[in-house]
Amino acid sequence: MYSVEMKGITKRFGPFCANDHVDFSLKKGEIHALLGENGAGKTTLMNILYGIYGCDEGSVRVNGQPVEIRSPGDAIAHGIGMVHQHFMLVNNFTVAQNMLLGIKDRFWTNLSQVEGELAALSEKYKLIIDPKAKVSALSVGEQERVEIVKALYRKADILILDEPTAVLTPQETEDLFDSLRSLAQGGISIIIITHKLEEVLAVTDRVTVLRRGKLAGTVQTAGVTQAQLAQMMVGHEVLLDIQRQENQIGGVVLEVKNLHCTVDGVEKLQGLSLRVRAGEVLGIAGVDGNGQRELARAIVGLLPVQKGSIQINGRDCAGRSVRAILDEGVSYIPEDRIKDGLLGEFSIEDNLILQTTGAFTRKGIFSRRSIRDNARRLMEGYDIRASSSTQPVKLLSGGNQQKVIFARELERKPKLLIATQPTRGLDIGAVEYMWTCIERAKAQGVAVLLISTELEEILTLSDRIEVIYEGAILGGVDGRDMDRLGLLMAGVRTEEGDHAET
Amino acid sequence: MLKLEKRAALAGRAGVIRSAGAMLAAILLAFLIAGLFIAAIGVSPLEAYGALFKGAFGSTYRLSETLLRMTPLLLISLGIAIGYRTGMFNMGGEGQFIMGMIAGTVVYLYVPAGPVLTTALAMLAAMAAGAVYCGFPATMKAKFGVSESIINIMLNYVAALWLSRLLNSVLKDPNGTLPQTAMIDKSLYIPTLIQGTRLHWGFAGAVALAAAAYVVLFHTALGYKFRATGSNIHAARYAGYDVVKLQILAMAISGALAGLAGCLEIGAVQHRLMEGISANYGWDAIPVALIGRQNPLLILLSALLFAALKVGSNAMQTACSVPNNLSSVLQGMVVLFALGSSFFVRYRIRYIKPKRGEGEAAHG
Questions:
Q1: pLDDT tens across A28-38, in order?
Q2: What's the total number of domains in chain B?
Q3: What is the chain B residue with the closest CA to A342?
Q4: Do A310 and A432 lie in a common domain?
Q5: Which long-range contacts (CB under 8 A, 24 or more apart) does B161-165 make?
Q6: Rounded-to-integer distance, Cα A438 and Cα A452, Å
Q7: Has residue B39 been placed in a domain?
Q8: Which of A389, A413, A437 is the last residue in one of the domains?
Q9: Global pTM value
Q10: Which has more pLDDT, B279 or B130?
Q11: How close does chain A come to B80, measured CA to CA in Å?
Q12: Cα–Cα distance measured from residue A176 to residue A191, given in angstroms and rounded to the nearest whole number
């Protein structure tokens, strides 16, 4: 008996295919992991099940009945509950008051009745929670429990948990898993979206692995190893024919030693060290959220360095301003291009002069002509397609937006290029273009630090690969040893794991 | 069922035309609806609006009064626009205007250094006072994230109370009984632009500053950095801009312009500081800047519109006995509709027939 059957689900965002004919099934009372790298399409698939997106193709059955889920309201009506990564709770309401949110057809509320029902639910599924507690007074682990209880309170018998352990301590994770097991015994079917292999092995019955929007396979958890899962998750298929050139390697351009950074009280970088030389691409692989973003931000001076050193061209750069660091010959492709890389309302030509405004003035006044000439040259050189250089960049496609950033950053003739997630969400043509740009920069002797969760990208472009895990480099990978790469990404240190400290 | 639909954004000229059209339509609509109110009290709206127009533009003197009123509105709203472009909302124009008046008056009264130098010093002192008065909340916002609007609004009241306090103590005219200062020396009066009117050179200066603000904002590197910061502060940080400095600088300029407006009001119009002197210019400048889309050239037009409404509605009151409250209604309508129009530039409302049985089908 299947609680959920999804067949041939396809979802496209423009030219990007987030789910490509994915099949997924959930048995009654099982705990099922949906595993994959970032951008593999896990969340998209679940958002379709929960009615946040409609799918372009495919069919969904719930408890054997074909259904059409057009909104989260429909999903709830079919007994599907979702616990998002970011909790949807009202902090200064009590647990019981939170239960009433979004429940229709009830004008008068009877809180003590709700509290009673909650106590019964907690009892039944061993989800200990005080209905009268204010949410703001609860720990993160308890809030997670409130979210689960909220779904159960709405009569959900199918639970979707999106990265439930991302913010939990190890003990809270254990408690959560205990609760999930008793829920499953009570007949609730559970889907966990995750990319943590050890959790998959610890708590699930079956695993479905997605890779680049496609189904990589569904297996029984019993009898599968971390290494096998990592292999399924990572895969290796050459999608693009980009030849990595071996290059004359020059001197050290970037040297990071024992870097420590803390964001909001959490130590995101814990003694990270790495070294990039002129003319090489160092690829930093790793599962998202292991300090990639912080590493890039610390190097360019956007994040204060707590301990450790950053040297660029032999000069100490820790603690200097962003301006001063960029002036050392650093170019930066931020992972969130809309938020951090572009002025959406501004035209293409104006975006192209972001760091070099001074070069386009005559007696203090902008020379519109030289700005436009610059834009025309770069739009041609980097194949930026737009009706005119005065078009606001927010109206461009993702690929063309990213080309604007590449044009601007590479045009400054950097010595060091830091590229974080340079092709996230781009279609295949644009991906190829960005990769060629990075390859070309390398050929010109630029030191490239490529930080990406897309393994394909790392494997295609990197001369050396190192894996970041929990804010430090866990190890390097020689050649294209996929098993070792997968294990390192999962945080498993292998025998030969010591050549990280180069 | 009514549905909101996002319109495709128009680039370049087409977008400007659409916005301008929407704005004109909004203003006309405001006059139309206010006209209904006027008709409801038994006055012909056409006659009333005729009186309003004549009152604002009907003679050289009338026009000069309108432009006189326009001057402080223009300066303060230019300042608001410059701050706004960096992502800061200066709602403290009123307080900065008052502080400018106080600082200017003190120099006018107590620094005898010849007409030119004293006037220059008075203006500088007023601008400095405004800059500091606006720079403080801006610093709090840029460095610590405290709402600059709230602090500024509070500071407006602080300024008004300080004015009152000073006028009842140290600044009080020793030869008088009212809470006001002595008159400044006649030699310090800012000269008039047209004989027989009160319109002064400050107006010409304000218009020149509007042009300058436009050039700085849209044709210099500094203005670009201001706008970049306001448009996307994250990208500005990534580009290595010192966004804290840029925001504080823009707000200091903003306050300085309001302070300057205060000094002109003393040097050219009132010639002395007294209680209740400010006539709400600082508050009125906020809708002026908003309707002028934070663009110095458009603000020239919106400041003129507001000044004309103010001056003209007095005439409308005397000529057609339309109560003053109704002209406030008219001004309120203009603000409401003009600001609302930008919504219709971005969205359209469509009526969609509800499909029967849609809800049930989903559960089938």
A1: 999 999 988 76
A2: 1
A3: B235
A4: yes
A5: B162/B98, B162/B99, B162/B102, B163/B98, B163/B101, B163/B102, B163/B273, B163/B275, B163/B277, B164/B275
A6: 13
A7: no
A8: A413
A9: 0.79
A10: B130
A11: 20
A12: 14
